[in-house]
Design goal:
Elements lengths: L27 E9 L2 E9 L9 E10 L6 H7 L1 E2 L3 E5 L3 H16 L9 E5 L14 H9 L17 E2 L2 E2 L2 E10 L6 E12 L13 H7 L12 E8 L5 H9 L1 H7 L9 E8 L24 H21 L3 E2 L5 E2 L2 H8 L7
Parallel strand pairs: 5-6, 11-12
Antiparallel strand pairs: 1-2, 2-5, 3-4, 3-12, 7-8, 9-10, 10-11, 13-14
Amino acid sequence: MKATEWGIKIGRMPQGDQNQITDVPGVRVGHATLKAGGRQTGVTVVLPPENPFEVQYTAASEVFNGFGKSIGLMQIDTLGTLESPIALTNTLNVGRVADALIQIAIDQNGNEVSTYNPVVMECNDSYLNDIQTRSVDFQMVREAMDTASARFEEGAIGGGRGMTTFGLKGGIGSASRKIEVGEEAESQSYVLGVLVQTNFGKLQDLRIDGYPVGEKLENGGLKQSTEPDKGSIIVVMATDLPLSSRQIKRILKRSMIGIARTGGYMGNGSGEVAVGFTTASPGDRKNEHAVTERDVLNESLMDLAFRAMAECTEESILNAMFSAETVVGTEGHVRESLGERLGAVGSPWRWK
């Protein structure tokens, strides 16, 4: 169940057809999930339309607070291109997932691979998951890639299985917005989509469409947390807008607006990282032309992309929470579903 099914409409812009990152043509998402007692974890992959090792997509990243263990961001920001699927997992499995992506790239591209930049990002799921078992292996990464599709599940699945958000169950969430560019007679339609891995925030700070739901839930019986915010959020953006790497980076910065609108404030021990790419005008790794040309969006038209990024990030966080079920994990730890909690105390929109 997504936020819209609770009657929540975030922002003003029209949603994409599925309201997922895969509304960007050709983009696919896959999961592999482990839910076995104390092992509550997994991996999620975001794949561009074609093999990114051969068809390199313009990309960028943005680190808001760098308490994280990501791989691959340095080269993205140096070259402005993506040459790997984007994988999301837990903190202690980053190396294993990166190793799996490298092996899969070798299997796909053979002797062409003498250098490769796997992109792997993480959040820490150790409250619900026995993280030292390092359970995510090659087969799970292979499964996530093999099952990737234009329709995918959200919530406590894949890399979001063991995540906590605002003291409740977090996970994987997604949203998209349609963008019309140009004058009416010559306008062109584009899509910007976001996928998040959410693992941050305190319950008392949770806001839904500006309303202080977290405070109400505390009054409904959930205990206020006095712990510092040590959580993280990973934001992945995809679009078919023609953009430069610099423009993508500017758009990624607006994800922090969506995070803040839900109540996130970027604690000292948290990691907020965003990475994004465009499917428009991809490059060719073997291109030997001295000069290349690419279309890019007029800078004066960036505002719609900024708004779309903020709206999609805010709604994706809520969709992760509304889609996730209650999970019981290692040592009997429990994270309750936001939807189930609201069902127990009544809709917050009745409290206004």
